[in-house]
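Saturday, quiet lab. Running sequence design on the structure tokens for the scaffold JK sent over.
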């Protein structure tokens, strides 16, 4: 499991550096997701996401939430495929992922990623309960910026059960 987490970490570092040629983990893993790889930097990253979800690896929640990307407009379709795979892995992990997604929702200023976090929460908890969890988190939040982001996210639950991320 540690090796899978390292693949996600290394891919995230490469993505942040802008190094598109790096292929961390390519030789370490089989390539079962190559056909539907989406926007993953490596086949190893796609395999790691898939496997960590199947293993319901709680320790993968933060690295998975860290790789939800929606900023690459040129490759929107493939990025959406990646997000769908990451969201499915997080949903497989379950409640620890929804709790952490609420924290990300509060601190992340991206409205695009907020939709992804809300989708994770709604798919795990259900739309109604997920919305209430975010509402309670907003009520308890002391930081005005985080409180505002949580309150804004409440409206996103109306579309959280749509088919596409």
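Result came back. Writing it out in full:
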């Amino acid at each position: 499991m540690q090796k899978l987490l390292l693949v996600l970490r290394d891919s995230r570092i490469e993505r942040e550096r802008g190094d598109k040629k790096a292929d961390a983990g390519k030789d370490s893993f089989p390539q079962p997701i190559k056909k539907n790889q989406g926007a993953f930097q490596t086949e190893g990253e796609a395999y790691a996401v898939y496997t960590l979800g199947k293993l319901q690896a709680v320790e993968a929640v933060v690295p998975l939430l860290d790789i939800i990307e929606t900023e690459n407009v040129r490759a929107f379709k493939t990025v959406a495929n990646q997000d769908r795979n990451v969201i499915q892995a997080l949903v497989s992990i379950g409640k620890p992922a929804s709790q952490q997604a609420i924290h990300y929702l509060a601190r992340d200023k991206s409205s695009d990623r907020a939709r992804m976090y809300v989708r994770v929460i709604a798919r795990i908890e259900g739309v109604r309960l997920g919305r209430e969890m975010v509402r309670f988190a907003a009520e308890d939040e002391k930081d005005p910026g985080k409180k505002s982001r949580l309150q804004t996210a409440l409206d996103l639950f109306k579309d959280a059960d749509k088919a596409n991320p």
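Notes for JK: Residues 102 and 134 are 7 Å apart (CA to CA). DSSP finds eight helices and no strands in the chain. Ask whether to fix the surface positions before the next round.
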